[in-house]
Amino acid sequence: MEAPPGLWYFIRAMAVLHVLGTGGATPTAERDNTAFALEAGSRVALIDCPGSILLKLRKAGLDRRLLESLLVTHVHPDHIYGLPSLVHGLMLMEGRLRLFGSRESLEFCRRLLDLFGLRGPKIRMRVEPIEVVPGVRFEVHDGLEAEGIVVPHTAASLAFHLYYKDSRGGWVVSGDTPPVSEIFDRSGAADGLVHDCSAPERFFVRYPDLRKMHTSALELGRRAQEAGVSLLVPCHFFGEADFHLEEVEEEIRRDYRGRLIIPRDMQTIGLSEV
Ligand SMILES: [Zn+2]
Ligand SMILES: [Zn+2]
Fold first, then answer.
1. How far is the CA of 157 from the centre of ligand 2 (A)?
2. Closest CA to 21 of 3, 42, 37, 5
3. What is the pTM of this model?
4. pLDDT tens digits for range 142-158
5. Is the pLDDT at 215 greater than 90, yes or no?
6. Per-residue pLDDT tens for 190-210?
7. Partner of 67 at 20 to 30 A CA spacing, among 56, 80, 247, 261?
8. Ligand lying nearest the CA atom of residue 32
9. Which CATH number goes with the domain that contains 36?
């Protein structure tokens, strides 16, 4: 989204989703692992933490001092391996980074940080784990609230329903997941849905086990249309599978007739004005 400076200020005063990556576990030249920075209420919350997050925040024009929280969907490497590097990069900055996730994800993060000695006295950036109880709305920071939704990608995976100031129905971010009814039920009344769309249907036909963990473009379009999703942002495109995003778009469009944004890495999406 391009915007002139005056309008840009206006949008920034609202809520902006910075797409830091759109790929699956295998990056390509164009797509790194999927992650987002949500700018709302003059602060920044990350959703997942693959590599080079401080670099990506800088490229997105976001001051790292505004970063206060990280929402962890699950602890597969492509979603969390950058956490030690992030904390290391912030170690001289007095502050706290609040980690929201399932109990299992938080325990994994603690062990990951301890491997690198990143919770010791020399680390001024304190990591504060906060367990998310599914279905219970919590404050991420002033101006941003969220709710965790259980998804069956791993035994301890979460999607998040995000509510920022002035949001109508909020946004749902699925994380990695097969189609889940609660996600689509909520998304029908939400302002938008960011959803796993790992590959076209033909890969799911060839590797049926994928259906237990991810969503095909065809299935996503069908479920989003049935649910009445008004704006759909597919992501987590497998880099190891040979397909173009035109094929993803064509499959989604077979059923889905709402607004569709197929995101590029480092794209911004103004959430409040959609
Ligand atoms: Zn993943
Ligand atoms: Zn995963």
1. 8
2. 37
3. 0.94
4. 999 999 999 999 999 99
5. yes
6. 999 999 999 999 999 999 999
7. 261
8. 1
9. 3.60.15.10
Whether the CB-CB separation of 46 and 53 falls below 8 Å is answered with yes
Q: 108: closest CA among 135, 136, 124, 129?
A: 129
Residue ranges with strand state E in the chain: 16-21, 35-40, 43-47, 67-71, 95-101, 125-131, 138-141, 144-151, 157-164, 171-173, 192-196, 231-235, 259-260, 268-270
The reported pLDDT for the residue numbered 41 is: 83
Task: Give the confidence band of 7 by pLDDT, cuts at 50, 70, 90.
Answer: very low
Q: Calculate how far, in angstroms, residue 94's C-alpha sits from the geometric centre of ligand 1.
A: 31
Asked if 204 and 210 touch (Cβ cutoff 8 Å), the reply is: yes
Residue-number span of the structural domain to which 248 is assigned:
5-270
| CA 236 to ligand 1 centroid distance, Å | 7
User: How many structural domains are present in the chain?
Assistant: 1
Query: Mean pLDDT over residues 20-29, rounded?
Result: 97
Answer for the pair 183, 197: CB distance below 8 angstroms, yes or no: no
Ligand number nearest to the C-alpha of 24 = 1
- Contact between residue 266 and residue 52 where contact means Cβ atoms under 8 Å apart: no
Query: How many Å lie between the centroid of ligand 2 and the Cα of residue 73?
Result: 9
